[in-house]
Amino acid sequence: MAVSITQALDIIYKNSPLVSTEIVPIEMALGRVMREDSIATFDLPRFDNSAMDGYAVKCADAGTTVTSSEVIYAGDNPTMTLEATQAIKIMTGAPIPQGCEAVIPIENVTVHDTQVTLPDEIQENIHIRRAGEDIKHGTVYLYKGEKVTAYAIALLASQGVTHLKVTRQIKVAVFGTGDELRPHFEKIAPHQLYNSNTPMFLSRAKELGCEVQYIGSSSDTMESLEAAIRSSLNADIIITSGGVSMGDRDFTKDAFTNLGMELHFDKVDIKPGKPTAFGTIGDTVVINLPGNPLASMVNYELFVRPTIRKMSGMKACYLTTVSTLMRDDFSLRAGKYTVRLGDFDGKTFMPFKKQLPGMLSPLEAANAMLITLPEVSVLEKNTPVKIIPIGWELTARTQEDFFTH
Ligand code: AMP
Ligand code: MG
């Protein structure tokens, strides 16, 4: 029995085990998922400091000429106190002196030797960066379950953090199945076919932050399939393509079940890619995708991506969509949950006319897809549609309705 797309995702979220952690230097943490909150051990900024090159002044001296004889540079540790009728020259980032109520930028004062004429109005606190205005000591500034970005690394560095607990890299093993397949670096006969799925799956897994293992391809015999599976069992996720339909030599699922796979679903109500299956062998997740490249990759985007996110402990592991409008009229065959690849130009979306399950070129050209409900047979120009990004990530902390109605 085929499960629905949403049921399939629920099963995936429920059965994808969380991968263990490791401690890495923050410079190596980019793209990893945080497994602990980060709590500020001090204020950021750490001390009150000047936001401009200018003069530290008192508000009551507005409109007067004051005397300035000292300078505070960034990196100094000033001990003086600013008195009335004085100004102290100060550089951006330098700690403000005791008694300073505002900083006036250099371009807003007139200077003659030690005499500085101040503007008529001085707003209290202006151009002073207060301690803790960015991050307060004791507060959480990065959360468990978030992906580490360059900006997160900047925050960690600003707190003097050297190492971070993150999910270790997820190991993905990939193999294709099919007697007709040959690796792309060999000469082939006219009736043979290059294995394009394995390199595609591997590359996409790498893009999604995984460590990958190339198992190549298996022929359509139980022995060969079982050998390929045994070589993959140390992975966290095994992704295969082919041999999952109704053909006489479609043994992929049987080979996995022979080796202990618990099958959680073996078909999804989706077009293309119905024979997509999901199972587990201990803590290893198995995803069997169809052999047809476009069908397999559509289901990879829909089901493998969330699996990786879930296993990495990412809180925002759910698919989400961009709401846009149809660029032009488009008709499709009703009756099935249908995935259509297409182009989103930032304003409108247009599915490609030519896309068949066995094709490769629409995958390369697409940057988004939409999934229509079975009753949809036409999408007129300017119809609101929801698209799922491919190649760029957009995720949510809860599962949304991502179907186009
Ligand atoms: P299957 O699901 O094994 O029946 O395969 C369906 C179609 O996809 C057939 O035309 C296969 O030749 C093709 N195919 C299967 N595996 C691959 C692969 N790794 N690379 C490219 N095409 C494939
Ligand atoms: Mg096959």
Describe the structure.
The protein has 405 residues and is an alpha+beta fold. Helices cover 18% and strands 28% of the residues. The protein has 7 helices and 30 strands. The strands form 10 sheets. The chain has a 6-stranded mixed sheet with strand order 17-14-18-21-20-19, sandwiched between helices. It has a 5-stranded mixed beta barrel with strand order 23-26-25-27-29. Helix 1 packs across helix 6, helix 3 runs parallel beside helix 6 and helix 4 packs across helix 5. The mean pLDDT is 97. The structure holds adenosine monophosphate and magnesium ion.
Quick summary of this structure?
The protein has 405 residues and is an alpha+beta fold. It contains seven helices and 30 strands. β9 and β10 form a beta hairpin.
Output the strand order for the largest sheet: 17-14-18-21-20-19
Question: Per DSSP, what share of the residues sits in E-state strands of 2 or more residues?
Answer: 25-35%
Total beta strand runs: 30
Mean model confidence by pLDDT: 97
Which of globular, elongated, flat, extended, rod-shaped describes the shape? elongated
End-to-end gap: 25 Å
